[in-house]
Amino acid sequence: MGLLREISPLVEPLSLDEAYVDLEASDWDLGKLDEHVAGLRQELIRRTAGLTASVGWAAASSLAKLASEAAKPNGVGSSLPERRLSSFPRCRCGRSLGWGR
To answer: In a 10 Å sphere around its CB, with 0-12 CB exposed, 13-18 middle and 19+ buried, how is residue 41 labelled?
Structure first.
């Protein structure tokens, strides 16, 4: 979580290995999220001697969760407004927090 807090002061941990990060509170250029996320994943691998991560980013945490799930294992998913519905594979509603549970 320390690496995420270096990016933004607004980090919401969900578990030991999962968190939401509010990137609007960061210094990141939001127009270059693909580049920033790639650098974040490289830094994670460097600091942890090879631990990998799946990352999802979107305007809402529930969509970011779906994007991350779609990117597993060890990938990056995004939810852009113009391709939001088509960017996710078919999945049961229960795959995201608060849906179908």
So the answer is: middle
Q: Which residue has the tokens 């969900």?
A: 14
Supply the pLDDT for residue 72.
87
Tell me the average confidence (pLDDT) per consecutive run of 10 residues in the chain, 101 residues long: 94 92 93 91 91 87 84 83 55 56 51
| pLDDT of the residue at 60 | 85
Helix (H) or strand (E) holding 18, with range, is: strand 18-21
Beta bridge partners of 20: 12
Q: Name the catalytic one among 12, 18, 24, 43.
A: 18
Residue pair 51/45 in contact by the 8 Å Cβ criterion:
yes
Using CA atoms, how far apart are residues 67 and 61, in angstroms rounded to an integer?
Answer: 10
Q: Which two tokens stand for residue 79?
A: 């939810």
Residue 18 annotated in active site:
yes
